[in-house]
Specification:
The chain is α/β, with parallel strands linked by helices. It has two domains: 7-139 and 272-387, 3-Layer(aba) Sandwich (Rossmann fold), CATH 3.40.50.150; 141-268, no CATH class. It is built from 13 helices and 17 strands. Helix 2 (51-59) runs parallel beside helix 4, helix 11 (302-312) packs across helix 12 and helix 12 packs parallel to helix 13 (356-372). The protein is elongated. Bound molecules: S-adenosylmethionine. Keywords: Methyltransferase, S-adenosyl-L-methionine, Transferase.
Length: 399
Amino acid sequence: MTTTAPHPVHIGDNLDVLPHLEGPFDLIYLDPPYNTGGRVVTGYTDRFEDWTGFMAPRLAHLPRLLAEHGIVIASIDDREIHHLRVLLDDVLGAGNHVGTVVWDGSTINSSHLLSVSHDYLVIYAKNHAALKASGTMWRQPRDDAQAMLDAAATAWRTAAGDRAVAQQRFRAWLTPRRSSLPRGLTEYDRIDETGALYRVGDPGAPSVQASRSFRELTHPRTELPCPVPKRGWRMNDASMDRMLETGLIEFGPDHTTQPKLKRMLADNATAVPRSVFRQEREGARHLAGIDGVGEFPFPKDLAVLARWFDTVTGPDARILDPFLGSGTSIEVAMALNLADGGTRQVTGIALDEGGIVQDVLVPRLRHCERTYGQTVSWSGTSSSSLAGKRPKRGSESAA
Ligand SMILES: C[S@@+](CC[C@H](N)C(=O)[O-])C[C@H]1O[C@@H](n2cnc3c(N)ncnc32)[C@H](O)[C@@H]1O
């Protein structure tokens, strides 16, 4: 089981709590009220005379709290995105806007003219230039590559370890799908003796390459030397040794065939994230499935937050969520920690309005403590709610 520090939850108005927090945080996740214009019956206030005036003093704390390599991700929709962008440009610098991602979920707002199905994730870096210069590369799993890996695993399992049968089954799965998959992916159509999916690659060094090997490789069966590419191998002697050791060189039937490089799909199944992604909204359903948790309007989705937390931070990330709401970010960190042995820690701030601390946040996080084996530490004006009492109402704030 993971031994992580407790996730600190502060009950109160984030305007009062933020000045007392100490960074640096690797990620600050912002999910403020979207200013939809009403009070959701059981939940939080979502009408602001002056949303920008509400947000500005809170966002002013971001630069002080962010690590030098830190990232801000803010969830928002069409109503306030333009104001949010201006505010974040002001506090973090327009040049630090990494991009704005569109999450296409199921319809949340229908009208006669347009059925709105998307939210935004606005992403800023504390220092975009330094992040690029450090060679940081964001990666996300590719769904199409994962589908191929799953099909290969099924072919291998049902072929009971017979490589030829597994390969035949996998290709039968692939054939009708070839035209809808990128060519670069469909080249991965071979299954090796361990059941892994791979393609073969040209082993010859390109003419511009500086260091190359001319080593003669001995065929494992005939024990005779195989042909060396005209311009040498594309790897140096040390990488050649590593590849031979890990089985990433494929020999032909005998020494007359030049050996090829094996490229494993599992090592190439990620891609730079795209600015639009589709993910069904499951947050409300997930929350409703937890016993004893009251209603909460529009909790975020575990899968969406997990995908982006994982993309922009490592397994030891310190994360700040000043608009904690029902506590989704804490559940996400707990789930990721349990899955990969990480030590992510989320500091959350929850305004106790509409009874959400006692009715939603506390029961949800208690459930999470049991499920994921990690703990939460509570502080703030409404911690009495933990003893089962009605929490003391925090200030309604401008919200
Ligand atoms: C869009 S919801 C966040 C939902 C959350 N990400 C989740 O998945 O449950 C916005 C939350 O911000 C809270 N909030 C509003 N004003 C706040 C303030 N001044 N300090 C702390 N939280 C506040 C509201 O109570 C509401 O729970």
